[in-house]
Each structure stands twice: as structure tokens, then as C-alpha cells.
UniProtKB/TrEMBL annotation:
<keyword id="KW-0804">Transcription</keyword>
<dbReference type="InterPro" id="IPR051534">
    <property type="entry name" value="CBASS_pafABC_assoc_protein"/>
</dbReference>
<dbReference type="InterPro" id="IPR036390">
    <property type="entry name" value="WH_DNA-bd_sf"/>
</dbReference>
<dbReference type="Pfam" id="PF08279">
    <property type="entry name" value="HTH_11"/>
</dbReference>
<dbReference type="InterPro" id="IPR013196">
    <property type="entry name" value="HTH_11"/>
</dbReference>
<protein>
    <recommendedName>
        <fullName>HTH deoR-type domain-containing protein</fullName>
    </recommendedName>
</protein>
<dbReference type="InterPro" id="IPR036388">
    <property type="entry name" value="WH-like_DNA-bd_sf"/>
</dbReference>
<keyword id="KW-0805">Transcription regulation</keyword>
<dbReference type="GO" id="GO:0003700">
    <property type="term" value="F:DNA-binding transcription factor activity"/>
</dbReference>
<dbReference type="InterPro" id="IPR001034">
    <property type="entry name" value="DeoR_HTH"/>
</dbReference>
<feature type="domain" description="HTH deoR-type">
    <location>
        <begin position="3"/>
        <end position="62"/>
    </location>
</feature>
Amino acid sequence: MSKIKRLERLLLSINSKKHFTLKELADEFQVSTRTIQRDLLNLIEMGLPIVSEFGPHGGYRIENDRILPPIGFTELEASAILYRIQMYKEAAFPFQLQSKSIENKLNHYLPDDAKENGEQIKKRLSVHLPLPPHHSLAPILLEAAVKQKIVTILYQMDNQKMYCNIQLIGMYSENGEWFCPAFCYSLMDFHIFKLTDIQNAVINYEPMEVKDFSNVTIHNWAAEISPKSYLKLDAEITPGGLPYCRSHPFLNQFLNKINENPESLKGNILVTYLEKVAEYLWPLKTNIIIHSPKEIKELHAQWAREICAKDEAILNM
């Protein structure tokens, strides 16, 4: 029996036992106790939690969890698991140690090119609950973002359909919808495409000159890009508003220290993303002083007037 087959059968055998000795396993597999001891050391190195017990009734046992039989994953499946467990590695999560163990095991067996692909997925994809519904073009656009290929899309813009060549920075989900920040070669500027407005998409695999987004990711794109059409964001944040800004996936890119206290939001924002940024800042209420752009202050003033008008109507009923 080959060593690999013996290890697989050994794993299944000890997984079904609460307690075992070297002699019992040696008799079962008809090998020496020295061979079984080496095999157990190999399984321990692979992450199997085997502990030894001393004394007249000593031997070995599996600590805590039983081990599943070997499961074969494709490289893409392994990358998907590695991506998903990132959020479960935080210290406050109950399964933090198990998440790190899963990551170590998968990384041990993944080839270097598959590991690189997984790292690119982390740079190009940001998922927040609630998850968006399935969209047939999402895998195509994610592949284009990961491989940094230009993709031709048919896009609905202002009640008009148009073809665009775009280079995606990545994809992120927000409030159950997918958004794709990208450089649009038709507009010759950056734009955020809503996935539901994209009618079709085809990746261009022909060699084409692309922009260098190696340091621009889906997690820092807003603060790193240099759009032609932009407005300057400049706002002071009180200590009460800092937790919200630090935890916000968009606003945290613009946090800048002014001495020690308070902090500020500074940077360039896309003109086409103005209303969305105003929505992000609205929950800060009195915890923010906006210096610019004036368009955001005007939007907030408009929304406040609309709320007051509704409340006044209710009070006068």
C-alpha cells in the first residue's frame, strides 16, 4: 500500500476512534509501530490535532473536532474559501483560530499562481451584506478586473445605450447592488458603472495597453485615482463621528489627521458620485463640518428642508 493511500485510510480510521495506540494501528495496517509513528507525525504537520496521553492507559486521541475525510477542491473553490474567511479572522469572531487554520492549510497546498490569483481577488472584490441577486455578467467582469483586461460593455446611460471600453478597478456590493469603478476609454475618465445597467460584456484578450492599477484596489480606489471631473472633499470630523468614518468602506480612505484631534476627510471625489457621497456623509449629522464641496452642503440643506416640510404637514393635521 502506498504511503498516500495509507495516510488517507489512517485518517479515516483514527477519526472514527476516541482513543488509539500505536500497536493497535500497526496491527490494523500491518506495518511497524515506527512507521505508524512517522505517519502520525505527517498528519500532525498537516494540521490534525492529535494529542498523546501518558500513563498505563495512555495512547493517542484526536483533540476536540473529528476530521472530515479528504475533500478535493478546485483552485477557484479554494480561492473562494480563502476570500470568504477573511472577515472571520478578526479577534472578536468566535472561530478566529479555526479560520486561520483553514487559511494555512489551503495556502500550504495551493500552487503559487493560484495563490496570486487569490490575492488579486482580494484586491478587486469587496462584498458587503445584503448580497446582491445573481447577475450573469458578474463573473465576466470580476475576471476582467482580476486579470486587468479591457472589457467592452453595452451600457444604459441616461436612457441611451452605448458601447464602452472600460478597465475595471474592481467590484463592490452596496445595499444589495453591484458597482464597478473603472476607467472608461470612451469618456477618457473614471466612472462608476452600476452592474444592473450593463446589458452585455465581452473581455478583450488581445494585447492592449492598460493603465497601471497595481496600487489601486477596490479598497482604496476613491483616494488613489485622479479623475478629470472631480470636486474637492474637505470636512472636519468630531470624535463622535470617527467610528462611523473608520468603519465605512468608502469614507475611511479620506481620513487625514490634523494634529491629533479632530480628524478630517480630504480628497477628490467624482462629480458623477456626488450624491452618493452626500448620502454617506448624511448620517454624521452634527458630527461633521463640511467646508467643500458646496454641492454636498446644498444637498443636505435640501434634504433637511424636505424632512421639515413633511414633519410640519403632519403637525398641522
